[in-house]
């Protein structure tokens, strides 16, 4: 699983690499302002505490356990975004290969059935949040809609892939047409990253 620190990570590609599906302007706001704000808020909240040097996953779990919603939201949004950037690739898209393909076929019947269900989950999630593909403790893949900053990390599940469906992820490029953004995701989804996350 990704080890994410309390700093804004480098993007794994140039800000214009995913054009026209995600524009450079969207990255300027989504990564450069929204994600950066979560990181800055998080650092301010943990400064001078025992969590100042902790990994972000540890902060998420402690904040969730203590019901510290402000800290949880900023830590989880930082983790979720850091993970999300790797779920996208200028060389992505197409159909999955390797172990992820076998597991999708096993747990959803076919790639088309999985794609349809994941897309529907992402489009229908009310308000803001994330559509996750996660792996449960028994190894089974599942699609989980999660509101706001929530993450499979608090459910003892392993994140495999995610799609951000907060409005700031798509509004510059698609206005309110979330389904068009979800459609574009399949052209840049990073199956290599998904394979690396499997347990």
Automatic annotation (TrEMBL):
Residues 7-89 form the Manganese/iron superoxide dismutase N-terminal domain. Residues 96-197 form the Manganese/iron superoxide dismutase C-terminal domain. It catalyses: 2 superoxide + 2 H(+) = H2O2 + O2. Keywords: Metal-binding, Oxidoreductase. It is an enzyme of class 1 (oxidoreductase). Belongs to the iron/manganese superoxide dismutase family. Destroys radicals which are normally produced within the cells and which are toxic to biological systems. This is Superoxide dismutase.
């Amino acid at each position: 699983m990704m080890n994410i620190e309390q700093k804004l990570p480098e993007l794994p590609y140039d800000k214009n690499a995913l054009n026209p599906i995600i524009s450079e302007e969207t990255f300027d706001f989504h990564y450069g302002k929204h994600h950066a704000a979560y990181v800055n808020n998080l650092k301010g909240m943990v400064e001078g505490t025992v969590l100042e040097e902790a990994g972000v996953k540890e902060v998420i779990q402690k904040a969730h356990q203590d019901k510290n919603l402000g800290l949880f939201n900023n830590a989880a949004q930082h983790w979720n975004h850091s993970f999300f950037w790797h779920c996208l690739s200028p060389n992505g898209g197409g159909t999955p290969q390797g172990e992820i393909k076998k597991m999708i076929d096993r747990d959803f019947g076919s790639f088309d059935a999985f794609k349809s269900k994941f897309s529907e989950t992402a489009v229908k999630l009310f308000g803001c949040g994330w559509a996750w593909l996660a792996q449960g403790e028994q190894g089974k893949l599942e699609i989980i809609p999660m509101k706001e900053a929530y993450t499979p990390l608090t459910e003892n599940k392993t994140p495999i892939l995610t799609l951000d469906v907060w409005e700031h992820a798509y509004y510059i490029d698609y206005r309110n047409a979330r389904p068009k953004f979800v459609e574009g995701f399949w052209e840049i989804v990073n199956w290599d990253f998904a394979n690396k996350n499997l347990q």
